[in-house]
Amino acid sequence: MALAASLKASTSKVLAKFGTDISIRTITNGSYNTGTGTFNEGTTDKTVKGMIEDIFDGMGGKRSANASGNSLIQSGDKKVTVSAGDVTSKPTSKDLVIISSVRHQIVDIKTQQTEGIDISYELFVRV
Prior knowledge:
Blueprint: H1 2-18, E1 20-33, E2 38-54, E3 78-83, E4 96-99, E5 102-114, E6 117-126
Antiparallel strand pairs: 1-2, 1-4, 2-3, 3-6, 4-5, 5-6
């Protein structure tokens, strides 16, 4: 547990020093509207530091793909790394990432863990 806590704290410190401001917009179901038969949507924004990377290498090749080569990565997709210590809950594909006032949909999430504790999240996002 000590190693995981240390890694989580170190990840937060590195991203705080070298990362870029981003916002993670958590989308939650609000109250049920009986007139329309839908849920009202609630949002909460949390500003954190993150590392933003392009997934394509500029030559049309994928820098990040799964082992089989099958990937749904599209040109313009980005990978955003955030520390698990900086967010209150694990992001989901329902949530949005706001980078420079541009909304990005989370299409995939990879969790880095040590000793069963989340250290960081890699969010693959698309405009």
